[in-house]
């Protein structure tokens, strides 16, 4: 220990006698810090609590990216390890799978129902993957509709439909109470449906609710007031161009569902209304 201390003092003395030497020692120390970590060919990662296993060459695929710097010994700070010895990155662990896929394939491939494009773009910017950021910034290559076929968003068609019956009292037909709708369905271009119906539009049954320039027939309204839906369409500049409907069931159902009133079942019908804004 004494010998080591003497060596340290001698180095300090030498540094003070030579004005150029301290800078050289500092640069050498910085270089030593950047290459102290040795990475195995197969790397185990802990990204925000989600575990991944990949090759070192994949992480080094883009030398200018943050991961390329971290796992090539060029980073100014060492990569931390968790309690299990895995290399730890304090970022979104779920979205990291797309970062890893991009490094492996050198192209961006996302699922059709992907709805976190902005968050993924933020992650790509953090990892300094410029090409991936550009791919996420230009959505036309991922749009399900060819841009040359897109029409002006101010024009379009929305179809409103419903299945309904009449609620009856105990005296049957002589005591008709009110119209009974199970659900008001909405079909059309997503942007137009959202514009017209706003918060009253329920998108929970639409599997591709992340995209915008597409059509869906899986929307329905959060209320069952047909006239309210019509008023909203009129206020948005739409005109009803046509409608059609089925006749009532008429006869009795052979296999009636439990709890279903026989009179209500006889009056089941389905109607559609086509609304157009030019």
Automatic annotation (TrEMBL):
Record keywords: Cell membrane, Cell projection, Membrane, Phosphoprotein
GO cellular component terms, semicolon-separated: neuron projection; plasma membrane
SUPFAM superfamilies with a match to the protein in the record: POZ domain
Domain Potassium channel tetramerisation-type BTB: 43-133
Main localisation: membrane
Compartments, record wording: Cell membrane; Cell projection, Neuron projection
Location of the region described as Disordered in the Swiss-Prot/TrEMBL record: 1-31
GO BP annotation list: protein homooligomerization
InterPro entries, per the entry: H1_KCTD8_12_16, SKP1/BTB/POZ_sf, T1-type_BTB
UniProt biased composition (Low complexity): 1-20
Biased composition (Polar residues): 21-31
Name of the featured protein: Uncharacterized protein
Organism: Penaeus vannamei (Whiteleg shrimp)
């Amino acid at each position: 220990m004494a010998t080591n201390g003497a060596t340290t003092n001698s180095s300090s003395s030498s540094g003070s006698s030579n004005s150029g030497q301290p800078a050289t020692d500092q640069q050498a120390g910085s270089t030593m810090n950047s290459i102290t970590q040795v990475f195995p060919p197969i790397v185990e990662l802990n990204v925000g609590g989600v575990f991944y296993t990949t090759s070192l060459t994949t992480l080094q695929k883009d030398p200018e990216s943050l991961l390329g710097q971290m796992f090539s010994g060029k980073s100014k700070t060492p990569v931390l390890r968790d309690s299990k010895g895995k290399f730890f990155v304090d970022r979104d662990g779920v979205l990291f799978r797309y970062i890893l896929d991009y490094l492996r394939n050198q192209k961006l491939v996302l699922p059709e129902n992907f709805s976190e494009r902005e968050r993924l773009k933020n992650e790509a910017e953090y990892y300094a993957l410029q090409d991936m950021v550009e791919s996420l910034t230009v959505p036309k290559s991922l749009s399900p509709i060819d841009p040359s076929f897109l029409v002006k968003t101010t024009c379009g068609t929305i179809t409103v439909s419903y299945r309904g019956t009449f609620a009856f009292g105990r005296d049957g037909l002589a005591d008709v109470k009110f119209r009974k709708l199970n659900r008001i369905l909405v079909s059309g271009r997503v942007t137009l449906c959202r514009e017209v119906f706003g918060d009253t539009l329920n998108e929970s049954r639409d599997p591709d609710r992340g995209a915008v320039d597409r059509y869906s027939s899986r929307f329905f309204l959060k209320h069952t007031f047909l006239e309210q839906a019509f008023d909203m369409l009129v206020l948005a500049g739409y005109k009803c161009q046509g409608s059609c409907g089925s006749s009532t069931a008429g006869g009795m159902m052979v296999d009636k569902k439990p709890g279903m009133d026989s009179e209500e079942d006889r009056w089941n019908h389905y109607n559609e209304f086509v609304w157009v804004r030019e």
